[in-house]
């Protein structure tokens, strides 16, 4: 996370990068999206909001599923964000959601064609997850071919959205992140044991 002061808003801004999340009751929360998805959760009564930024719906293997602790996967990102609210004494039934991103911006890379559909998979995942958790989606801006800048004002749940042209730097950043987490570690990661011993 990076914290900077923004004179336009007259407040500090917390930047959430891929694989991160943040919950706040004062500072503005910001992220930049391409194929990634950001989920905003907020409680009107507690005047608290949070945002995550995930790269893929779920781990690429069961090994990674057991080891993964960051918010780069949707399943982890959602659990971490919701648990952050629970730790503040805010019940899940009090939360509302807004979802953003999932654009189709990645160039087809030989051998990595499946990355072209990451945005769609990210959107499908979060809609299913929030429905299962009974957290209503009150607003969304997903899909398409462009990128997005998102600013969350946590006290109100208000989001400022700016659509942006996709630049090579955003494509390169997302491609690099997705390629890194698509590499599965082999062996040595799990020790099985028997409870009867």
What topology emerges from the helices and strands here?
Layout: E1 2-6, E2 11-15, E3 20-24, E4 28-33, E5 37-43, E6 48-54, H1 62-67, H2 74-87, E7 96-101, H3 118-132, E8 137-142, E9 147-153, E10 158-164, H4 168-182
How would you characterize this protein structure?
With 197 residues, the protein is an alpha+beta fold. It has a single domain (10-182), classed as 60s Ribosomal Protein L30, Chain: A. Helices cover 25% and strands 31% of the residues. The protein has 4 helices and 10 strands. It has helices spanning 62-67, 74-87, 118-132, 168-182; strands spanning 2-6, 11-15, 20-24, 28-33, 37-43, 48-54, 96-101, 137-142, 147-153, 158-164. The longest helix is centred in the middle third of the chain and has 15 residues, at 118-132. The radius of gyration is 17 Å and the shape is globular. The model is unreliable at 60-68 and 183-197 (pLDDT under 50).
Question: Which tags fit this structure?
Answer:
197 residues, alpha+beta, 60s Ribosomal Protein L30, Chain: A, five-stranded mixed β-sheet, 4 helices, 25% helix
Question: Would you kindly provide a brief summary of this structure?
Answer:
The chain has 197 residues and is of the alpha+beta class. The protein has 4 helices and 10 strands, in the order E-E-E-E-E-E-H-H-E-H-E-E-E-H.
Number of strands: 10
Q: What summary fits the major beta sheet?
A: 5 strands, mixed
Find the CATH topology.
60s Ribosomal Protein L30, Chain: A
CATH architecture descriptor text? 2-Layer Sandwich
Structural class: alpha+beta
- Helix fraction, binned, reads 25-40%
Strand content: 25-35%
Number of domains: 1
Report the total helices. 4
Strand order of the largest sheet: 1-2-4-9-10
N-to-C order of helices and strands: EEEEEEHHEHEEEH
Give the distance, in angstroms, between the N- and C-terminal Cα atoms.
44 Å
Overall body shape: globular
CATH hierarchy class name:
Alpha Beta
Give the C-alpha Rg: 17 Å
Low-confidence runs: 60-68, 183-197
Question: How confident overall, as mean pLDDT?
Answer: 80
């Amino acid at each position: 996370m990076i914290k900077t002061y923004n004179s336009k808003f007259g407040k500090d801004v917390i930047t959430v990068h891929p694989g991160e999340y943040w919950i706040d009751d004062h500072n503005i929360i910001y992220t930049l999206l391409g194929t990634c998805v950001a989920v905003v959760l907020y409680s009107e009564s507690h005047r608290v909001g949070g945002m995550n930024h995930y790269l893929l719906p779920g781990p690429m293997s069961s090994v990674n599923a057991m080891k993964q602790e960051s918010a780069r996967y949707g399943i982890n990102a959602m659990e971490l964000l919701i648990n952050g609210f629970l730790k503040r004494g805010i019940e899940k039934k009090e939360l509302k959601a807004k979802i953003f991103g999932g654009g189709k911006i990645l160039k087809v890379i030989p051998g990595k064609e499946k990355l072209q559909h990451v945005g769609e998979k990210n959107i499908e995942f979060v809609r299913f997850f929030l429905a299962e958790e009974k957290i209503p989606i009150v607003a969304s801006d997903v899909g398409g071919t462009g990128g997005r800048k998102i600013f969350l004002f946590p006290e109100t749940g208000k989001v400022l959205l700016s659509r942006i042209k996709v630049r090579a730097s955003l494509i390169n950043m997302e491609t690099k992140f997705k390629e890194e987490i698509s590499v599965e570690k082999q062996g040595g990661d799990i020790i099985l044991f028997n409870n009867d011993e």
